[in-house]
Each structure stands twice: as C-alpha cells, then as structure tokens.
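Supplementary Methods. Inverse-folding protocol.

Structures were first reduced to a discrete structure-token string of length 446. This string, shown here, constituted the complete conditioning input.
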C-alpha cells in the first residue's frame, strides 16, 4: 500500500474511531510495512470485541510482535487453524510449552499448510542443567530429545511387515508362492511326510519397477520369517576371498535363524555367467554361491532364497538347476485390474476427491509398471501440494491432477520388453521365456 492510500485510511479512521473493519485494515497495512510502533498505537487498549471476528487475528499479530503474548491470547479465541497457530506462538513466548504444543498440533491437523519447522523446534526443545566441576551452573537448551530406542531405530530402521494384501495384482505369482513356499513353512509336518523340505530358491525376473522386491518382502511377511535384504555392497569386497567369506557368513546367519528369507536384488551382479567373467574372482564367487545354495555339506532347510533380476539371460545357467533356483517366475507389468488395484493402494490415505473414477487412468496406462504408476500419483500429489500452499488450505488430489500427471510420466517397461522379445524369440531353447512370449502375444507386442 502506498503512502497516500495509507494516509487516507488513517484520516478516515480518525474521523470514525469506532469503525472496527477500518481499524483492522489500517493495522494490516502497517504490519505489511513493518511499522510496528504505529500499529501498536492504532490498536491501543481496545478489546477483541472491538473488531469483527475475522480481523481479530491481526490484533494478535501486532501484540505478539510487540512482545505482549498474554494479551495476544485474548485475540486468538476463534476456532480457526490460524488462531491456534498464533495461540501456540503466544503460549510458547509465555513458557507454557505443553499448551503450545497442543495448540500447534490443532493448527496443523486442521490445516497442514501452516506447518512451521522453526516453531516446532522451539516447542520440542528440552532444557538440561549441566553442572561443571567448578564454576556456576549452566542451563543448556538442546533440541535433542532422542531416546535410546530412537537411536536404535536410526541405526537399523525396521521395515514394517508386508503381506500379499499390500501387493496389487500378480495373483498367479502369489498363488505359486503360496503353494511352493508359504505352505511348506506353515505345514512342515505334512511336507516332511512327503519328503518335501521348506525353503529352496525362487528367481523373480521382469521389467524394473514391477514389484519383485515388494513380492519378496510380502513373502517373508506371509511366512512370518526373518527377512534379510542382501545388498551388493554387503558381499563384494576388493580383497581376494573376502566376498566368498561374507556370502558364507550371510547364509550361516540365515541357517541359525530359520525360518529365514534371503533376498538378493540385482542378482546378476553376484551370479553372472562364468564364461563371460573377465576376472577369476567373479567365477569363484559364483561357485561359492552355488555351493551355499545346494552344496554337499549345507543344510538349508527352512531357508528360502529369493533372487530378483532384470536380466535373467545374464544369470549363470547352473543356478536354474533343481535344488537352487528351481522356480523361475516372470513378474510382468500389471494388467488393467492390477493397475486399478495398485492405484487404489497408492491413493489410499492421501487427500483426494470423493468418488474418484480411476477408469480413465487405468485405460491409458497400459505398459506402465507399478513404479510408473507410483510416479503418476506422486506427480499429481506435487500439484495438489502446490495448490494447497497457494490457497493456504489443504487441497485434495483431483482427477485433473492425475490426468495432467499422465501427460508428464512415460512408461519405463517398454525398453525392457523390446529386449526380452528378442531373447524370447531367438534364445528360448529350453522354453525358459515362454511366459514372456505369452505376455507379448497377449498384449500385441510379440
């Protein structure tokens, strides 16, 4: 507001001193110009009821910035979220931290766009007394209330257990896993009668982002087994023999804590074809891996080995022998019912329009992986967040947000399917890629 307009408003207020809305307008203008002394003089000793209810928060801001938090509380009696936030600031200034935290939570619960990291840090800070050996007592303010259990959580973050209810689609693969893996864990006596042992190995392959890792975690959750997600960095070592020793130690740990699931993601890094290995150490690691899975002296009953790869044609053929990865399952991009289920899971617990029709999105996402669908929902969420910040209130995800996101996100599985088609056509002597061929023919991509 320019000087002339402000001067006109102040003159009008002098002529009508009981005009509450006009006084609030002048106060807002002075606050915007950071002229706090004049704003405090305009407010004077007037009570909150001298202003219309929506304008009382302006008086609260003036009093807070003037260092009068106790009187500012009188102007924050409204139920609005912004009033609760100003109450939290005033209560914090008065040292009433518990009440301030409660007011802050009310404000953020009603309107998440009001989150204030600096204020929250003040409200959660703890005061410690440090008594040195000599000298006066010191009071130290620290924003660290980390308990012992929180330290453990930071060092080894637990992942929430998953089940097949958290996996969208892939019903046929889930049935295979139930029959081949979960039932032997759940009914060991019955399977022992038929000389069938729990455990074994299953190799999951398919385009990236289609749920191989999610399936592995859900399988462990269904079995009630310990889940070990083995990263490549856990195994590979620059020193000769160390990689093999680490691999053996991991298998030993799983054998001691059965039932257990060992999951090897990006398996080709540890199990590539030995004839293509340029270094003898790589071939030795593959041989060690094979020995651990089905060696003469190994007892892997109760240990399930799950592997996932995007390039099954790079895996050493010895891993496909029965007793090792004797079940090889193709994890394809989700079909239409699976996409609808995945989108429902992704949108669950997010602010969104009521009765949202996902039919358009399902129809136009053929060839999208689960990760691609997650990217669509995340992109739509970004648009809703930007709109919420602009409006100053939470705005849900709309169908228009999802349609706009669909124009920005492109499927990532098509390149993999093109490569897999060549292997399925020309390198399928043992029928190991029949599932890929069937999928490509069904969707007109063969």
């Amino acid at each position: 507001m320019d000087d002339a307009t402000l001067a006109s408003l102040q003159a009008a207020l002098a002529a009508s001193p009981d005009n509450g809305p006009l006084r609030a307008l002048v106060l807002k203008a002075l606050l915007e110009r950071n002229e706090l002394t004049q704003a405090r003089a305009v407010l004077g000793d007037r009570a909150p009821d001298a202003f219309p209810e929506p304008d009382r928060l302006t008086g609260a801001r003036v009093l807070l910035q003037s260092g009068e938090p106790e009187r500012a509380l009188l102007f924050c009696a409204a139920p609005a979220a912004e009033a609760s936030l100003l109450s939290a600031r005033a209560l914090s200034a008065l040292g009433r931290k518990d009440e301030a935290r409660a007011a802050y939570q009310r404000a953020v619960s009603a309107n998440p766009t009001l989150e204030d990291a600096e204020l929250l840090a003040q409200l959660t800070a703890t005061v410690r007394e440090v008594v040195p050996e000599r000298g006066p007592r010191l009071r130290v303010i620290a924003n660290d209330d980390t308990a012992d259990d929180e330290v453990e959580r930071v060092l080894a973050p637990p992942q929430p257990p998953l089940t097949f209810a958290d996996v969208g689609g892939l019903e046929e693969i889930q049935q295979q896993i139930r029959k081949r893996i979960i039932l032997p864990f759940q009914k060991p006596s019955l399977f022992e009668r038929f000389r069938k042992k729990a455990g074994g190995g299953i190799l999951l392959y398919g385009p990236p982002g289609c749920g191989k890792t999610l399936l592995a975690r859900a399988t462990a959750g269904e079995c009630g087994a310990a889940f070990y997600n083995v990263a490549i960095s856990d195994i590979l070592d620059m020193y000769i023999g160390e990689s093999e020793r680490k691999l053996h130690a991991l298998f030993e740990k799983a054998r001691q804590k059965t039932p257990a699931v060992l999951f090897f993601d990006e398996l080709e890094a540890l199990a590539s074809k030995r004839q293509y290995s340029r270094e003898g150490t790589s071939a030795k690691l593959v041989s060690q891996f094979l020995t651990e899975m089905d060696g003469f002296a190994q007892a892997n009953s109760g240990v399930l080995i799950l592997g996932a790869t995007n390039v099954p044609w790079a895996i050493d053929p010895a891993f496909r022998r029965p007793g090792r990865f004797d079940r090889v399952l193709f994890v394809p991009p989700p079909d239409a019912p699976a996409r609808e289920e995945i989108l429902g899971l992704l949108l669950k617990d997010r602010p969104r329009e009521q009765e949202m029709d996902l039919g358009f999105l399902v129809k136009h996402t053929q060839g999208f992986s689960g990760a691609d669908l997650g990217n669509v929902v995340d992109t739509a969420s970004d648009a809703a967040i930007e709109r919420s910040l602009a409006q100053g209130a939470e705005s849900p995800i709309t169908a228009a947000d999802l349609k706009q996101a669909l124009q920005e996100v492109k499927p990532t599985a098509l390149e993999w399917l093109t490569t897999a088609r060549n292997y399925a056509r020309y390198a399928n002597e043992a029928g190991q890629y029949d599932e890929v061929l069937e999928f490509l023919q069904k969707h007109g991509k063969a």
